Amino acid sequence: MAKPNKKGPSKTVNIYCKACNYLLFKYRKAGKGALIKCFKERISEDYTDAPCTCPNCHKLFARDCLIRGTPAFKMIGGKVLCK
């Protein structure tokens, strides 16, 4: 399978925790679909202390995994908000 584009898109979106509205990351998202996965190399600014856990409410919002051989976060449905 093909790897994701290293440079990635130039459009950044803010990803918030849906429970407490805390800003988790700024992510270079491609396309206009729902946010299902976040490739770690496309995260431009990370505001979390521990991976996949909201620093404000301490809830798990994603799972750490490999997608197409690239490290990524697989989002849990309904836990994050993308603006």
Explain how this protein is built.
This protein has 83 residues and is mainly β. The chain has strands at 12-17, 23-28, 37-39, 43-46, 62-67, 70-75, 80-82. The chain has one domain. 0% of the residues lie in helices and 41% in strands. The strands form two sheets. Strands 4-2-1-7 form a four-stranded antiparallel β-sheet, with no helix packed on it. Strands 3-6-5 form a three-stranded antiparallel β-sheet, with no helix packed on it. It is globular and about 35 Å long.
The total count of helices amounts to 0
Total beta-strand segments: 7
| Percentage of β-strand residues | 35-45%
Q: What is the 3D form?
A: globular
Which strand order do you get reading across the main beta sheet? Answer: 4-2-1-7
Taking all Cα atoms into account, the compactness measure Rg is 12 Å
Query: What string, H for helix and E for strand, traces the elements in order?
Result: EEEEEEE
* Category by helix and strand content: mainly beta
Itemize the secondary structure elements and their pairings:
Layout: E1 12-17, E2 23-28, E3 37-39, E4 43-46, E5 62-67, E6 70-75, E7 80-82
Antiparallel strand pairs: 1-2, 1-7, 2-4, 3-6, 5-6
Keywords:
mainly beta, 83 residues, 4-stranded antiparallel beta sheet, 3-stranded antiparallel beta sheet
Give a brief description.
With 83 residues, this protein is an all-beta fold. It contains no helices and 7 strands.
